[in-house]
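User: Show me sequence and structure for the first protein, then do the same for the second.

Assistant: Starting with the first protein.
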Amino acid sequence: MPIDAALALAAEPRSSEITWDRKDVQLYHLGIGAGIPATDPDELRYTLESRLHVLPSFATVAGNGSPGVISGLSMPGVDVDLAKVLHGGQTLTLHRPIPVEGTATATGRIAAVYDKGKAAVLVMRTEVADADGPLWTNDAQIFVRGEGGWGGDRGPSTRLEPPAGEPDRTVERPIREDQALLYRLSGDWNPLHADPDFAKTAGFERPILHGLCTYGTTLKAVVDTLLGGDVTRVRSYATRFAGVVYPGETLRIRMWRSEHSTRVAVSALERDDAPVLADTIVEHS
């Protein structure tokens, strides 16, 4: 079996040093669509070094390394075809605000392996800390088609009841034709997002946008729309990737706000509101 669950779970955690600076932060922000309009004071917080703050979803690319999906596939007990792999979901927990520049230790391990019948799900957990203590924890849910069925634990359900009533806010965010090409410069070089031939092999009509790009674009919309642009108010952010986005499409982002959290649903406007992100929740102060 290409996935040996026992071996993957028993493997020693892998630690490495990561570093990032303001240029990495600015590139990430541009990759998720920041800077439009370029002179808007609210956008300059994402693009101008003298005013820079860090959107928490930057944690998924900090250090300019591979995201949890890619690093998870290199762990002991995991030997799968990249064309069968999809990013199933992402959960980010912030322990304190992310500095504009930093050096930290990232420790990664397979935290869970679930048997969904026709697929397997790996949970790749990455914990990051610097000299002052923990910074963030990332959980990437890696969906591998055709690798289930060995009789393992199906794992918990991540499905949430749909939000009640009409959304408090709805915004639309266009995705540029070159958005995936720009976003991949932050470290995710999966050819699925750039190579038309590879995309067809994986079953898509053309290259798709990174799920984590949609993830970042959505968090920015919530921060800017409901949290007064204050990135330090975000405590955690979780989503399930429910569908693909093609560069050139428009995201419709619906938000239902409560006191300490916001439920979010994201769809592709041009495809009759096809779901893109589901079971999405931002916890905040």
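Switching to the second protein now.
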Amino acid sequence: MMTAARSADSGPGELDRYPCAETPAGERAALRSWGGSDSELGRASRRGTASRGRGLHGQLVQQLGQMIVSGDLGADRPLVPEEIGQRFEVSRTVVRESLRVLEAKGLVSARPNVGTRVRPVSDWNLLDPDIIEWRAFGPQRDDQRRELAQLRWTIEPLAARLAAGHGREDIQQRLGEMIEIMGHAMGHGDAITFSRADAEFHSLLIQAAGNRMLEHLSGIVSGALHVSGGPVTGCDRPAEASLGHHARIVEALASGDSAAAEAAMRQLLVVHLDGEPVVPAPREH
């Protein structure tokens, strides 16, 4: 996962937000056409080889996406495929395919006689899981996490209410299995397994709502859980409370109690979104 953005008072030359292997000095001097002695793309090229597990195409999408979302690459200059290929030591085919992915996400646009340029934030697909992650670990991280918290407060209680009316025993069983996994992981201090099971729980619950438009938004919840960290981070008490709320949601689903399922989800979100400003729950009349 990406590291957090460099603080505002970090000095020049410090290693910043995209940790990758150091590029040899000879290569760093090879291309200076982006302006200045060490341009944005030049700085990023020094980080371009750390995440080999992603493959060249995935690495380049990740690198350029992070740079665009962080503001390191702006609309003031075109993204020249040849320069990108030289800096990251990848083929023109890899560069071309990576730019197509970024274009599909709304981050860049390619036009004849204009070239490929970064698009304004209003054009970005802000519901794309990659962009959610890039924003959450960049300069916009506070806004991103607040917006995600508010969106989850809207989506998930409704999903829980709807799921209670569908009686999907197969999904309820799977939800129970996720709770068992979370409990076992919590007992062993395994935050990664806990968080993965937690994300699966919330994704399954949205599927159980029986609303295809809500299901389309399940990636947002998974992305929010991924970037905010699971409730096991910090201390055990929030995790124990979280586990109990998960169990109450499944009990409400089993009994078909929509109101109880919605209430249990709101209580769970208070734990998940601790410290995040969220939309207050509506008053009951």
